[in-house]
Specification:
The structure holds two protein chains of two kinds.
Chain A lengths: L1 H15 L3 H21 L4 H29 L3 H6 L1 H6 L5 H33 L6 H25 L4 H26 L7 H8 L9 H8 L11 E2 L2 E2 L7 H23 L4
Antiparallel strand pairs in A: 1-2
Helix pairs in contact in A: 1-6, 2-3, 2-6, 3-6, 3-7, 3-8, 6-7, 6-11, 7-8, 7-11, 8-9
Chain B lengths: L7 E8 L9 E8 L4 E5 L6 H9 L4 E7 L7 H4 L2 E4 L11 H13 L4 H11 L13 H13 L5 E5 L5 H12 L3 E6 L5 H5 L2 E5 L2 E2 L1
Classes of the chains: A mainly alpha, B alpha/beta.
Chain lengths: 271, 207
Amino acid sequence: MIARIARLSRYELAVLLRRRWLWALVAAGIVVVAIAAIAVSGDANQAQSDNFRASGASLLLVGGLTLALCLGATAIFTGGITGGLGVLVGSGARRTELTLARVAARLVTLAAALGVWCAALQVGSLAIGRGWDGPLAVHVAASGETHAMVLLATAAVSTVLGPFIAGLVGLIVHVTAQAITNLEAAADLGRLGSANRLTHVLYNLLPRSVSSPMIVQLQNRGAGGPAAPQFEINNVAIPLQAAGIGTVLWTLFWCGLFALLCVRGMRRRTL
Amino acid sequence: MTDAAPALLVRDLEVVYQRGGEPAATAVAFTLSPGDGLLLTGDHGAGKTSVLRAVLGLVVATGEITVLGAPPGSHEVTARVGYGPQGRTFLERHTPHEIVRVVTGLRTGRPASDVANDAMERAGIVTRRRDARTVDVEDIRRVALACAIAADPALIVLDDPWEFPETIAEIERARARGAAVLVATDEPGGFTDLLGRTITLVNGIAQ
């Protein structure tokens, strides 16, 4: 079964790698990193580090989320309409194998794009004289996990609904995961009044965003840039906390749940 | 017709895409023995593709369907069925070589490039690794034929095939080796005589 999924994944990857928008997006990310490195080259020590990292975080948020939504939204629905899935299932591919293969190919593509941007960021960091940036690499991994969850959620919806609606639902999942993570920090400090308890319950039920130590530090200092602004309630800054192992595992659990929904959604779909 | 167990048995088939909606095909019944041919014809939207999809397990259908002795869509069966889909979009952005190779791999359980190449040659595909965006409609119809005949399946299902000399030759060849052939098209042409039996669908109902 693994060999068949791998074969179908390679087949799907061949098509994904022919999508020009994908290459354009990855290239645009590299250009953004280059511009950011040039822009911060004249800054003082701490500001230089903060600004470069904030630019990287913005790229990973906007670029990574765009990738996750676009890849997830085209996972199943379009293949069902074109007949591309039908010819494979009609030729002996199990629906489960095909679903997992298409999702796996997209996760690999997302990981590869994030890897390229991570490499570009490290080269940028070296170029401005700050050396290898470990915390930034950890942030790429944390963003990657959140984006993978969004991709899987979008793909699950794409088994029954078109790309636009699937993308919209994926975006809602992302916003919800980020919001509940921030609100939990406020609830921990008792800043939400009667909503504290409800927030704790929702935090333990809903998907969460995986916040890296780097982005939390930047946010708490108000240096996260537009992608990671300081979190405030009633003009009072709420200190955020980096995701622990519990959140990492919880997000993986949601990844698995969305993958399961993908498989379930494909089971009776007309191809 | 032969006395062998049927390659395909369809009784009281009904396909409904939306709950409570009009059936796309209803009360369709036929039997195909090994070596038999059957042409499903009718106007565009008559339900021909829905019947084929039901046989292949690509759509939920009611009624009795037995494909090579098993329910439609079961893995053991689909690996012995050759399917050439209609239209031109199923190729997505794959090259002819990629799609025929993966279909062959699914059917044979191994990366059988030699079998895929043989199928493409028999289907008359000249350029195998051409950029998918430059493949013309005729080539795509030939790719559908290659997908259907690769690895010599026991049942060949062709949806809206073009009447190439290669199509005619492959249908004759398949029937001669004992494979059943089911073809759906709204332009019967030479397929009527070639396949021997015809069912005409009108608004999803067999006439």
